[in-house]
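thought: fold this chain, then report.
action: predict
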Amino acid sequence: MVAWYDPRQLARTAVDVAISTIFGRHSDYRITEALVAPSEGDNVWEDDPTDVPADADGVYDYSNREQIWIDYIADTGDGWDATYTVAYYASQPELELRDAGAALPRGDLLVFGGDQVYPVANRKSYRERLFEPYEAALPKTDPPHPDVFAVPGNHDWYDSLVSFMRLFCSRRWFGGWRTRQSRSYFVLKLPHRWWLVGTDVQLDSDIDIPQLKYFKRIARKMGDGDRIILCTAEPHWIFAKIYNKYDEEINENNLAFLDKKIFTKQQIAVYMAGDLHHYRRHATESGLQKITAGGGGAFLHPTHGEDVKELADGYRLADTGTYPPVSESKKLTWKNLGFLILNPWFGIATALLYTLTCWSVMANLGRFGLRQWYQAMKVAIAVSIANPTAVFWILLVWGGFLLFTDTYSKWYRAIAGTLHGLAHVLAVFFIGWFATYVGVRWFHWPFKSPQQLLLAGGMIFVLGWIVGSIVMGIYLLISLNFFGRHSNEAFSALAIPDWKHFLRLRVDSQGLTIFPIGIRRVARKWQKSGGSGPLFVPADSSATPPQLIEPPVRV
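observation:
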């Protein structure tokens, strides 16, 4: 899985994110794709009687069926075990699940809900982290072939959708699925007056004008009272609650605009999104649903932390609609005490910062024993203040961890960031003091002699690697379990591949039924199947089979 705390990975990702953010604000690829008309001459499915081409308005019509099954999978492409486990079970012709009432057939459609690859999008990442796992799960088979559609998330936008468009919008094979869409947004007409709408809000941008015109045009094709399943890349209803904002800053206005200005005569009955890698379902008393389901293969996100039990417009967290359970989520957070072991390369960053800071101060503390800690600290502070370079490095260490703190809470950033930075500054002081003491008092080397400096530098680097990582892990644990902050940072450090899930939807004459399918523990071992179907099958006795997260949700 992606090593999010590897300094090399962080540097590469930071550069890609910065570039995409800068160019994304000044150049919107959605405008370009809207100007390019789809080429029907490139229809590789034209000889297939089951082909469902888009009509003149860009609608893919599946309404001539008595019922249709749809698989919804979001946040894939992190680690092989997690991604392939979901792909393997989703591609099975049928799934036998406890309490499902009957075997659930494979989806006629597969909808990806955003963030198809991590950490950034490019041709290599899509091939290795998404395409190859799904091709191994469902090779090209005899007709009928399922169709696949995809909503782009922020990680898909990190190369301006170039790789996304090549994979999903060029009418190519995606393993045993057929790609359909020609743009990064789409509308599917389903049986019994149901519709599925996939949106593209770029990197926290507003919905672009061509996309709005597209939805307005299709809204006129819908009948009064038709029901809509709206797929968006991020659960903006959650972010609006957490950050106490319902304005353009967190994009809640995009969803409200679609609901109140575009689909005015229809009803958005179900909102679905990924981005947060857990399952949470909010519902109103009338049965409208907002579902966060980002369990397709990325590291797990916690289900505790910020209070999201009640949302705007009467949505409440369902009693059975949390996966993993909150109690289990809190227990998993304690694994941050093993931050050093789980993220061994992160210590390079703290080791360098600690070493450079001590080097800039260069205070002779070797003559002070443990009981003289107060005198040692006074000397270190005096030397530091008199040295502009030392002041710079101390402020850099402190400020760096201050900026790392949860930036959406000013008070928490000011208090927790200061305490976190202070913990590292104190660690620098005690490690530097100890390293100097060893050379001066134990080996009787003169202060600043070559051998004393080499020994002290080596000790500071090693101890900075270890202690800096431990301090970070403790900070993340306390922040999440006691103050509800840093949920993303605390769990990306754990890189938990388990607790995966996807949604299987059925639309029939009775309405919409949602089957939330969870996989408690993904397989870590695989073996070749030796026959048709998936190339690999689980060979891990500790892996758990899929089961329903909660009873089927009927709309």
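thought: worth noting. The longest helix spans residues 450-483.
final: tokens above.
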